[in-house]
Amino acid sequence: MADRASWIELSQPSLERNVASLRALSSARLGAVLKGNAYGHGFQEMLGIIHPLVDCIFVILPEEAHAIRAWEAAHSAPRRTVVVL
What we know:
This protein is α/β, with parallel strands linked by helices. It is 48% helix and 13% strand. It has four helices and three strands. It has a three-stranded parallel beta sheet with strand order 1-2-3. Strand 2 (56-59), helix 4 and strand 3 form a beta-alpha-beta unit. The chain is globular, with a radius of gyration of 14 Å. The mean pLDDT is 90.
């Protein structure tokens, strides 16, 4: 059964290029949705990748917003706008 397992591989360089392309098209603020465990990709894993690329992060649970603030403090990262949907 293991040979039938599905998975997804995300490319950080591709994500970075995609974000750069979007930023080149517009001066609008850019956000990312990390709800539902980042759509199954892992909240903490995706947070570390997406945080430096976006202006705003959207989540579902207040606990996720608190987790972002804790991550920012632990990594001396700038605070992003966080919206609980």
